[in-house]
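Appendix C reproduces, verbatim, an entry submitted by the partner laboratory led by Prof. M.T., so that reviewers can inspect both the input and the predicted structure.
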Amino acid sequence: MAGGFLLVPILLFLYPEETPATITSITLTVAFFNALSGSIAYGRLKRIDYRSGVSFSMVAVPGAIIGAFIINYLSRGAFQYAFGSLLLLIAAYLTLRPDKRITGSLLLKWQVSRSATDRQGNHYKYSYNLPLGLVVAFAVGIVSGLLGIGGGIIHVPALTQLLFFPVHLATATSHFVVAISTLSATLTHIADGTFSGDIGRVAVLSAGAVIGAQFGARLSQRVKGSLIVRLLALGLAIVALRLLIAPF
């Protein structure tokens, strides 16, 4: 994930005077550089499904632009509670982990088959429902532009639980899609003037994110997919409770 689900609460705490639009313009830019750096690293590992990623990006971009416009009309309080509620729902879903066979039986039509072999020689074969994937990507784009979180916290669970992507390919492909959608949302903030005055903060945060993404991509080779999902659920739950129970 691009890390926005952690960065947004941190910036809300550090800059209580800033509007949600300003906060998201910063985090989206950082998320873009993080996702771009991660995509380069995952590309070297041959774990990105580029064909699927391009298809998802075509609908994620307009969604991200819509979300970037909507954020201008949300108050800080509404933004914070919406953000916390979303994180808590995703954490609960990841913890419960519905049986894939149940959802899979409902998604047999319009299947697209894929196969890939990564740099380590691991071979992957999987199929997914293309229309559902496009709907998910559009929703991720809206959430990305609206909440400034990149969208990976939704996209990765959706890719693994609904579209049956292998976890390592899901994280890599999500980075690729997030890089494109966050760039479009960032350009939207630049166009409407929300981004002005934040170059210094963005530069510092982005530099750290670019370096961290390289370490994260390499670390993913040594971490089991199931552990990645559990750590994600725990992280989301902690941040969500902090936002909902003890608002800034």
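Residues 4-245 form one domain. Additional entries are available on request from the coordinating office.
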